[in-house]
């Protein structure tokens, strides 16, 4: 069966909106600016015109839910919800930390890795993080996730000698040396291609979730802020 769907990512200053047919990428539009997320609706309109499709062709939208920069993420999720509400297109939410760990497990991890630790910039010397066990070329469910001061997260990992972490994500740009001193150069990735999960991986995970849920999605998604959730718990 052929699935035509959209993948959307906009949790930081750059946005991507892509039309897919199954796992084939048809066209991507997006950009990087302080107002990039506010351009999602015009870009969607342009995307459909360029590819000769209409909203009635779209079966679902795979949307990265965060975590990320508060304003960018809020605008992206609000836009996805508005499109879904106006068109009855179901939404499939993807956890950005899990997606980055999933992508790393496929081909990026050094052989000695036992756990994948994606870290995303949460500002003020804090990072959003997850700790995922590596099982062959797959990542298991997160042992924990949330946000921490960078120093507290490093100490948490160092205090567990059974964990040999592979650290990646846009949080490594600011804190590369800090983690490299603890775990070694090979265990910290700063390649700019892997600062977040790729839109292609968001699409793959979205399509897999759509199929496994018997082609059922959500009418409304909630941003994965993590900080707000932790504050509420505290």
Structural summary, described in words:
It contains seven helices and ten strands. The C terminus is likely disordered. The protein has a five-stranded mixed beta sheet with strand order 3-2-1-4-5, sandwiched between helices. Strands 6, 7, 8, 9 and 10 form a five-stranded mixed beta sheet that branches. The protein folds into two domains: 130 residues, 2-Layer Sandwich (Nucleotidyltransferase, domain 5), CATH 3.30.420.40; 99 residues, ATPase, nucleotide binding domain (Nucleotidyltransferase, domain 5). With 234 residues, it is of the alpha/beta class. The protein is 36% helix and 26% strand. The longest helix is centred in the middle third of the chain and has 18 residues. It is elongated and about 55 Å long.
